Amino acid sequence: MLRKDIKQVICSLVSELDFYFEERGFKRRKNGLIYVRKVGTTIQKIDMVFFSNPSYYQNVLAHIYPHMEILFPNVNSTAKIFASKLIPEKWLDKFTIRQPIQIYSNSEDFCLKDISNYECLKEEMLAFFKEYTMPLLEQLTCEKDYLALYENKDKRIIWDDNQFLYIASAYFNEHRLKEATQVIEKRFGKPGLRKRYKQVFDFIENIDCSDGYKGR
Q1: Domain of life of the organism in this record (predicted)?
Q2: CA quadruple 115, 44, 67, 24: dihedral sign
């Protein structure tokens, strides 16, 4: 089955989830696979990524692999000042967090097997969104939420190198230079990494030599 035809089936499936997301302020374009909502300045997205005719499954038309995406504009704006050579520009412009929604759960993969009967799959996805995805999104509506998840070592987030740069950026915006510096030192303080992340350490050093970072 061609990918474009599979996409139409998935769009039909997703349209039956619209009621749930619309009740929570999300919108989806017709024939689109991305839900979007804005909470204050924060932009949240659910992207229904899918792989058609996956070779790693038999008799499966599509593996639906949703991703969540969060953009804290002020965090990314500050990160551009000291991490423009470390984080790809297209990422800096689009998101602070982007990761599969199932990454740390024990749920089974969302597999579309039958184009005419996907009721069970729809219910599985809806149950997952209710139990796991939406509670996390409700805890990521602003920069303070983001910092709280970091400080609580929340395991639902993939805390990779870029996340540590963004967390430092959020601390800078809160005028918490000490915490921002600690984040950078802890993650990138070893000699080899310190050289690679020189742009960040130079930024911190320049702040120390001035009156402090004024924030966004």
Answers
A1: Bacteria
A2: negative
Predicted TM-score of the model (pTM): 0.92
In this prediction, residue 200 carries a pLDDT of: 95
d(CA 197, CA 81): 13
| Cβ 136 vs Cβ 27: under 8 Å | no
Residue 61 has pLDDT above 60, yes or no: yes
Distance CA 29, CA 164 (A): 33
**Structural domain of residue 80, as residue ranges?**
3-208
Q: Which two tokens stand for residue 93?
A: 């412009």
| pLDDT reading at 215 higher than 80 | no
Q: What is the C-alpha to C-alpha distance for residues 14 and 30, in angstroms, rounded to an integer?
A: 11
- Count of CB atoms situated within 10 Å of the CB of 31: 10
Which stretches of the chain are assigned E, i.e. beta strand? Answer: 27-28, 34-39, 42-47, 50-52, 62-64, 67-71, 97-100, 110-112
Number of domains in the chain: 1
- With respect to residue 130, please indicate whether it lies within any of the assigned structural domains: yes
Whether 214 is covered by a domain: the verdict is no
* Total residue length of the chain: 216
Q: Which residue is listed with tokens 């409700």?
A: 138
Residue 139 CA to residue 87 CA, distance in Å, equals: 25
210 pLDDT higher than 80: no
DSSP letter at 109 equals: P
Over range 143-157, report the average pLDDT. Answer: 97
Residue-wise pLDDT tens digits, 192-206: 999 999 999 999 988
